[in-house]
Structures are given as C-alpha cells and as structure tokens.
Amino acid sequence: MVMQAVYLLFFLVTKIARLNENVRFDCVAKGNPAPHRVWYFNRARILLTDRIAMLYNGLIVIEKIQHMDAGKYTCHVENLNRKITAEAVLEVTGR
Questions:
Q1: Where would you tag: which of 26, 29, 44, 54 has the fewest CB atoms within 10 A of its CB?
Q2: Backbone phi and psi for residue 80, each to the nearest 5 degrees, phi listed first
Q3: CB burial of residue 31 (10 Å; 0-12, 13-18, 19+)
Q4: What is the rounded radius of gyration, in angstroms, for the C-alpha atoms of the chain?
Q5: Do the beta carbons of residue 46 and residue 53 sit within 8 Å?
Q6: Alpha carbons 41 and 28: distance in angstroms, whole number
Q7: Nearest-CA neighbor of 44 among 74, 87, 7?
Q8: pTM: predicted TM-score of the whole model, two decimal places
Q9: Nearest in space to 33 (alpha carbons), one of 80, 74, 87
Q10: Mean pLDDT by 10 residues, the chain (95 residues)
C-alpha cells in the first residue's frame, strides 16, 4: 500500500449571503489513508444541527443563514502523513 499525504482538491472561498439563504462550503480532500475532516466556526468545533449538515465528502451546508452565522469557517484535514487547513469568511447581508 502506498502512503500519500493529504491534499485539497477544492479550496474554500469567501462568500457573501443574504439573510435566510442557504450556503455551502466544500472541503474536498484526498490522501491515503483517507483523510479525516473537522469543521470549525470562529475556532469552535461546529456542531451539526437541524440547520447545519455535513455530507460524506466534506461539504458543509448551512440553511437559512442568520447574522450569527457570519464569521470564519475552517476545515481541518489530516491523515497519518500531513495536516492542512483551509479557511473562508462568510458575510451575511440584509435584514
């Protein structure tokens, strides 16, 4: 088995969303062994809720964006060979 350091296939992009829109952030990574992902919001680990879901491929979806959702989103990815992070900022507009 060939070991391969983890690497990102898709980088996070800063987004601007209107109030009550849905937003998604992609954190697609590959490596061998398969990488493990953890999402953070303003340095705190994201807890999944009825509005926040993480799909199997590292995609995180936030439904009905509120002003409290604005901030820095960080995807931490690692396997036995490497650790990497990607960050994006979400701005929320509207009333």
A1: 44
A2: -65, -20
A3: buried
A4: 14
A5: no
A6: 18
A7: 74
A8: 0.87
A9: 80
A10: 65 87 89 88 94 88 96 91 89 92
